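Exercise: predict the fold of this chain.
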Amino acid sequence: MKTIRIFLASSEELNDDRIAFGALIYKLDMYFKEKEVRIKLYEWEDLDAAYNNRRKQDEYNDKVRKSDIFIALFHQKAGRFTIEEFDVAYEEFKKKALPHIEVYCKDIKEGEVESEELKEFKQRVTDLGFTCKSYANKESFKLQFTEQLIKYIREQSVTTIADNILKINDDGI
């Protein structure tokens, strides 16, 4: 059975988007389970918070290193742990061309302010050759991610799975 491991990094400010994304991954996983493919989502909320003689962030970073796809979400700020997770993913990517890295920034609405740290991070990401994809709401984020997942799967030469995802997306997930 093939497993696609996804790590979702973001701060709590995007909690609703994280919940919607988790629901999407659950639906995709249930669909593909019968086709011998699993999609596993790692989020910091789901990992054991108990002390085990290690810094918790180091445990999260281990999951980042083991992921196939790394997703970072930003809105108004760039938290130090999310940036650290991005850096870990990028270092791992340079070593073995995985994880596939996606950076998404939720649109700033009237009255909201983007932090200087986020502006600097976005410039750094761009300088590294990545694109910060903008999204308006959780539905547009889910759609953009599904499109990227299809591309990822096609790159992995699993076209029948990609075709099934297209069918699922057409069915309104």
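Check your answer against the key: DSSP finds six helices and five strands in the chain.
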